[in-house]
Amino acid sequence: MNNMETVGPPPPYDDKRSGAEGDRSLEMEEGDFRIAYWVEKNVRQAFIRKVYSIITLQLLLTVAIVAVFTFVTPVNTFVINHIPIYYASYGVFLICYLVLVFCQKIQRRFPWNIILMTIFTLSLGFMTGTIASMHETKAVILAMIITTVITITVTVFSFQTKVDLTTWTGFFCILAIVLLVTSITTTIVLVYKYIYWVHMLYSTICAIIFTLFLAYDTQLLLGNKRFSISPEDYVYGAIQIYVDVIYIFLSFLRLGSRR
């Protein structure tokens, strides 16, 4: 699996040793294993701190863009009258996302990974801001509050639960297929005729699926489950969770808006 590593049990000890020499060898092996464990734990903790620091900066930048697009009237009017801004930002976001996810060499090469991730964050922020500018201010604020509560709750759950979601890869592949088919079908239906309940159903499905993906991607960061993201792939880990949070916000924004 790309960007993932399997966390296996420690190697078995050789029980054929005997006497003082065997005891000393066993103690050395146990000591080496404890050192390796603590080194790995420290590396993983530093990795998690780095990922969440990046996500925090991404979300703060996105909130600032959304606030400008929502509360500054000239900007709001300009964006509504120039819809191509949305399509341009979405195209840039999609290209950067695909490059960062599938090109590990760029993903791990400084400063290109930081430059691409910055462009990726700005483009997704502009896309989110463009969508927010087309909805009521109350709906934007409510969606932000709900997203914040859900993100914190899911993160705490993912850290505390004993359920290993990283082994449910097949289930999440099915969810991705369901999301793709639902998106295509909904787009076709709404292009020809706007149907309120179809719009609401699609938004609900998106909110549920991306909430589950948030829990899955969070557990991949922890390193204490069957599969985990390599500590070298902090960019990959950050953009996955960032995308999950943004799409949860957009789903609830559609649900809470009357426009």
UniProtKB/TrEMBL annotation:
It is a multi-pass membrane protein. It comes from the Eukaryota. Belongs to the BI1 family. The keyword Lipid biosynthesis does not apply. This is Protein lifeguard 3-like. Coiled coil: none annotated. Keywords: Membrane, Transmembrane, Transmembrane helix. Residues 1-21 are annotated as: Disordered. It is found in: Membrane. The chain crosses the membrane at residues 51-72, 84-103, 110-133, 139-159, 171-195, 201-222, 234-253.
